[in-house]
Amino acid sequence: MNVSSMITILTSWTVTPTEAAVQAVADGAANAGAVAPTGGPMDLITMLGMPLLMIGAVWFFMMRPQRKREKQMAEMQDAMKVGENVLTSAGFYGKIVSIGHDSFIVEFGGEAGGRGVRVPVRKSDVVGIKTPVMTPPPVETADTKGKKK
User: Distance between CA atoms of 17 and 11, rounded to whole angstroms?
Assistant: First the structure.
């Protein structure tokens, strides 16, 4: 076979569209690691839906109970009356002697019949209606030392 006959064979050979498609499939099969993209609307919905579902779950299990507690606390603070014993967020017990728009006047240390110290306190700093438990701790004697109840 000479060179002129090879050129004639190569120039006469043309690729039809069907053969091009077969060739593309054969090339794709040769690339074993390549994966054809599957894209579609369901992939997009799944990709965006999962993070939104997670955010919704976080809100439902964490933020909603927090807001419920805040609402209950605000209702309790609005229902407080003069003369009630309260506990502040700083850990001080006192008695409400006056109520303002957004604050209480709380008297600290006036239980012994005398007048205590009156301090204005924000309503949000009052965390509960409580009377302090003033019982002394049990005294440890020689008989009770080291014994468990």
Answer: 17
What DSSP character marks residue 102? Answer: S
Token pair recorded at residue 114: 């005398």
Q: How many CA atoms lie less than 13 Å away from 93 in the CB half-sphere?
A: 11
81-129 belongs to CATH 2.30.30: yes
In the chain, which ranges are E strands? 85-88, 93-99, 103-108, 117-122, 126-129
Token representation of residue 7: 């050129």
3-state helix, strand, coil in the chain (%, to 5): 45, 20, 40
- As given in the structure block, the two tokens for residue 101 are 């728009």
- Per-residue pLDDT of 3-59, as tens digits, reads 666 666 656 655 555 665 666 666 655 554 555 556 667 777 788 888 899 999 888
More confidently predicted of 15 and 142: 142
Tell me the pTM: 0.51
Question: Cα(93)–Cα(117) distance, rounded to whole angstroms?
Answer: 12
| Type of residue found at 28 | G
